[in-house]
Amino acid sequence: MLERGGISPAGQRGIHVLGRLAQDGLICFGPHREKQPTFTLLDEWVPAARRLDREESLAVLAERYFTGHGPATLRDFVWWSGLKVADAKVALALAAPRLATEQAGSDTYWMASSSFTAGGDPAPVHLLPAFDEYLVGYQDRSAVLTAAHARRFRPYSNGMFGPTIVLGGAVLGTWSREPRKGMLRVTPKPFRRLRSDELRGLAVAAEHYGRFLKAPVVLSGP
């Protein structure tokens, strides 16, 4: 369609045009067609979206961040949102009546007003994807990634964070995937030697991953 309109999509121009159209709110990503992304009109997927003024937008952004990421600090919110500190403070003040707080030393942590109680396995294992919000959604990641482990965990050369192994809430290693014919090989790279119960948890996480992909997963020895 771009070519018929006299606009060449050659090189990177096509994807930049699509990116601009998405930023302008005309299109958004649709479902993949095999390995290729598709796009759809935003109005078809999000009909009659409500319009927010600036203060309402700030309040909604803060409430959603701290509800989905809490407990988190104002610094974390600034890091994640890209807002100026002054705007982030306004956003937090507007959302504060619908949030709860906890004090830890000199830091104030904000979270959803409802409390959540973890149940089931006290130390579940999760295989999280690259750039998952669990790690990169915060400026201070020390609660889930110790300083000793942080020295071993490095972003890839292009700045992308790799997939992580999370055990009982803490990042305990990285992992990689290698497609094979009719299956997928998952190779864990833990920061330390795993106990037998942790290895069983890792196997369960790999099984869940294979169930999601609808493909058998072979777990290589860590």
Descriptive account of the structure:
The protein has 8 helices and 9 strands. The protein is an alpha+beta fold and 222 residues long. The chain has 3 domains: 49 residues, no CATH class; 59 residues, Winged helix-like DNA-binding domain superfamily/Winged helix DNA-binding domain (Arc Repressor Mutant, subunit A), CATH 1.10.10; 95 residues, no CATH class. The strands form 3 sheets. It has a 5-stranded mixed β-sheet, covered by helices on one side. A two-stranded antiparallel sheet has the order 1-2. Strands 3-4 form a two-stranded antiparallel sheet. A hairpin with a 2-residue loop joins strand 3 and strand 4. Helix 4 crosses helix 5. The protein is flat. The mean pLDDT is 87.
Q: Tell me the number of helical segments per DSSP (H or I, 4 or more residues long).
A: 8
Measured by DSSP, the beta-strand proportion falls in 15-25%
The helix/strand order is: HEEHHHHEEEHHEEEHE
Rg, nearest Å:
21 Å
Enumerate the strands of the largest sheet in spatial order, edge to edge or round the barrel: 5-6-7-8-9
**Helix proportion of residues, in percent?**
25-40%
Low-confidence spans: none
Mean pLDDT metric: 87
Sheet of most strands:
5 strands, mixed
